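Final report, closing paragraph on structural work. Over the funding period we assembled a curated collection of sequence-structure pairs, and we close with a single example.
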Amino acid sequence: MPDSRTWRQARQDLADRLILEYAGAVPAGQVLAAVLRVERLLQGCQPDPLRRIALCEDLIRHRLLEHTAGRHLTPVAS
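Its predicted structure, as stored:
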């Protein structure tokens, strides 16, 4: 199991990657909050840190895609 410093760095790297990827569509603070929230939720059900970070990334990407797609699917008044 990685030490806490390595784990924090992996979590920060994930947040940084997602912030850059979704820049302009989702505020950076919301992305960071999502990473922290999902990672905390997964601690109890996924003890393996490598699987937890991968699952965390999958869940957050899915959620961010829903969020950004919801903005683009808003009906336009005729």
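The chain has one domain: 4-71. Residues 4-71 form one domain. We thank the funder for supporting this effort.
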